[in-house]
Amino acid sequence: MTPFCSASYPHPNRRNSKQDPEGCNIAGLTPSTLHYAVAHHAPKLVTLEQVNNFISNLNLLDQIGSYELNHIFAHSQRLNSDAIVSFVKALCKVAMSELQSPTDPHVFSLTKIVEVAHYNMNRIRLVWSRIWNVLSDFFVSIGLSENLSAAIFVMDSLLQLAMKFLEREELANYKFQNECLRPFVVVMQKSSSAKIRELIVRCISHMDLIRVSNVKSSWKSVFMVFTAAAADKRKSVVALAFETMEKIVREYFPFITETESMTFTDCV
C-alpha cells in the first residue's frame, strides 16, 4: 500500500509535479494538500475531520509559549490527590523516554520532576508518600540503568531534591528525610558503575557537610551509603567516605546523637 504522504498525493494545482524521492514528508503538507489527499485517495483511512484536528493541534502547539508551559508545573499543587499522583507518573514516563539516548539525553522533564516535587512538598503525609513512591522508583530505575549519562543526571537531580528537603525542618516521628535518601542507598548497593558509586558518595558528603544542622532521620541512610562505600573496590570511594565520616564524628557528633539513640548505633 502506498504510504499517505505528500509524495503520493500531489497538490491539486500541480498536476505534473514530480514525487519526492525521499518519500513521505508530513512536515511539508499544507491544509489544501491534506484535504485533497483525503477526499480523492484515502476516504476509508482518514477523514477530513481528523485532518482538521491534526492541523488544529499543530497550530495549538505553536501557540503555547514557555510561560504557559511552565505555568502547568508551577501550579501543580492545585491538582487534587489522585490527579497529582497521575501527573507525576506521566511525567516520569516522559522523562524516561527523554533519557534513553546514551550520548545526548534530554533533561527537560527531569528538571520538571524536581520542580513539581518541590512545589508539592506541603502535601499531607499520605499524598506525599504516594508521590514519593513514584519518584523513588524512577530515580532507582534510571540510576541503575546502563546509560551512564542518564544515571549521572538523575543522581544530580536527586541531590537537588535532597538539598531542598533538608532546608525544611523535619517534624517529630516523621521519617521522610530517610525515605528521600533511600534511592541513594539502593543505587549505591546495587550499581555496577564505579563512577556512579563515587558520585553518590560525593553527593552525600556534600549534602551532609552543608546541611548538617538539619539532618535528622536521614542519618541512617547516610551511614548506609558510607558502609557500602567502605567495602568498595575503588580506593577513592573508600577514602572519601572515610574522610567525610571522620569529619562528621569529630566536628558534628552532637547532631547525630540528638536525633535518636539508634542513630548512634548506626554510626558505630
Automatic annotation (TrEMBL):
Pfam families linked: Sec7-like_HDS (PF09324)
Assigned GO CC terms: trans-Golgi network
InterPro entries associated with the record: Mon2/Sec7/BIG1-like_HDS
Superkingdom per UniProt: Eukaryota
PANTHER family noted in UniProt: BREFELDIN A-INHIBITED GUANINE NUCLEOTIDE-EXCHANGE PROTEIN 1, GUANYL-NUCLEOTIDE EXCHANGE FACTOR
Mon2/Sec7/BIG1-like HDS domain sequence ranges: 164-246
Organism: Nepenthes gracilis
Region (Disordered): 1-22
Name of protein: Mon2/Sec7/BIG1-like HDS domain-containing protein
